[in-house]
């Protein structure tokens, strides 16, 4: 009887921690591309497994690569979710999650130079992304279609 009470109590305490941390955004998984003339931007995201989504991005014009970065969205040891970006192999910068819904996730780090605010959301079959400073200035956005479509 006492064991069942402790098990019930442990489960009750675990639920709020999970709900507070949120879940990894599995809806971001896939290969995504935006084309604008001969300019292009691509993002690749794994599905969530083992508490992490792995990502990569690259942009360019024609056959010239202009930018690339490695990214990840993970559940940190404290249970929080954060976005990590490592542009061109630089040490990763951490952006803690500030909000999340079933189709949107937002990260922010006011101490970072640029970007300071990162937002991903689904818009039908499209994956949308936006970056900006905390005050909304220097905003930039992308509308990615599923690659191969």
Main attributes of the structure:
149 residues, mainly beta, Lipocalin, 10-stranded antiparallel beta barrel, 1 helix, 13% helix, disordered N terminus
**How many individual helices?**
1
CATH class: Mainly Beta
Radius of gyration: 18 Å
Question: What do we call the CATH homologous superfamily?
Answer: Calycin beta-barrel core domain
**Share of helical residues:** 10-25%
Averaged pLDDT: 88
- Overall, the morphology is globular
For the record, the count of structural domains works out to: 1
* Structural class by SSE content: mainly beta
- Head-to-tail CA distance between termini: 58 Å
β-sheet strand percentage: over 45%
Order of helices and strands: HEEEEEEEEEE
CATH architecture: Beta Barrel
The profile of the biggest β sheet is:
10 strands, antiparallel, barrel
Show unreliable segments. 1-20
Question: Which topology does CATH recognise?
Answer: Lipocalin
Order of strands in the sheet with most strands: 1-2-3-4-5-6-7-8-9-10
Total number of strands: 10
């Amino acid at each position: 009887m006492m064991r069942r009470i402790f098990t019930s109590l442990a489960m009750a305490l675990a639920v709020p921690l999970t709900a507070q941390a949120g879940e990894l955004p599995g809806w971001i998984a896939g290969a995504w591309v935006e084309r604008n003339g001969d300019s292009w931007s691509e993002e690749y995201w794994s599905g969530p497994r083992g508490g992490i989504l792995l990502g990569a991005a690259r942009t360019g014009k024609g056959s010239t690569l202009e930018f690339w970065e490695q990214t990840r969205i993970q559940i940190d040891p404290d249970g929080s979710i954060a976005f990590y970006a490592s542009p061109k192999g630089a040490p990763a910068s951490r952006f803690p999650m500030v909000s999340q819904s079933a189709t949107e996730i937002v990260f922010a780090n006011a101490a970072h130079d640029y970007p300071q605010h990162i937002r991903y959301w689904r818009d039908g079959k499209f994956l949308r992304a936006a970056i900006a400073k905390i005050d909304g200035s220097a905003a930039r956005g992308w509308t990615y279609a599923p690659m191969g479509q």
